[in-house]
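Exam revision sheet. Question 4 asks you to relate a sequence to its structure. Input first:
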Amino acid sequence: MKAAVLYQAGDVRVTSLPDPRPGPEEALIRVRACGVCGTDNSLFKGDYPASYPVVIGHEFAGEVVEVGAAVRGLAAGDRVTADPNRVCRSCAYCRAGLEHLCQNLSSMGVHRDGADAEYCLAPASNVYRIPDSLSYEEAAFCEPLACAIHGVELAGVRLGDTVLVIGAGPMGNLITQLAARAGAANIVVSEPLALRRERAAESGATHLVDPARQDVDRELRKVQRIGADVVFEVAGSSEAQASCLSLARKGGTIVFFGVGPQGRAIPVNPFQVNENELTIRGSFNNPFATLRAVELLASGACRVANLISHRLPLSRYPEVFRLFGGPDTLKLMVLMD
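Answer key, structure tokens:
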């Protein structure tokens, strides 16, 4: 099969690999579409650790080709997506119901071969059927949408809240849609790229800010004088993360959703956190949210087709990191056909 292999930071190549074979509890999936995300870009840049060499990619959908002897409930021809994270279910975190924090977590495209390939393997327990009404490209958003669901639930967005979303890439747009559905009255989106602000408006943003030309704090306080009830930092920018403490109201919640470079610290004033009783949270992975992501997409409650800016064949995969983050770029979708 053809696959995009990350050999080391900065070195990704499309090459031929043996077709994988499913183990007793696995499904072999013919990949139809695989999205490119910020984690992939961080892996390529060397900002995120990986087990080299590895087939990159983890946001995908396709169809089952074959299942292992112990698999029940899946069959060849089923249209599916999958949670890319394998957990041990025996460590202290798994036994406490925190499987996404598993000490032995293994993720597709990071620690084991992923889905930017003609075929991939997934534990059958991680595979979810998708309806015929949902395209493979839309279904490839199930993984990032599941991560967004987890982040919005951690934030505790309430009816009537004012929410600030910093960064309107694909994840920022998904969080904007979910915050609107959770009942936020005001959703302020800060994003320097015009295309992304346009998509944020389509996703439910009530106020748009261009941080290259406008002061985010000043524009936010025109909406709610005391600051945001919830601040999502989605860009993975250390500068933006540092600004969040002054953008949240007293008693507010800050969610660091974007992945910043390892080893890079930001200044935090403990007095400010204590005096204003701020909650600062990280948001990692997508625990128990994939099925809900399928339902949201299948019902049309979340729209993602307008977030795809580029479609590339697998043979052109190395181009994605030249395009990633560009002014006319949102979700890059790799197609296997």
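Marking note for examiners. The chain has two domains: 2-141+304-335, 148-282.
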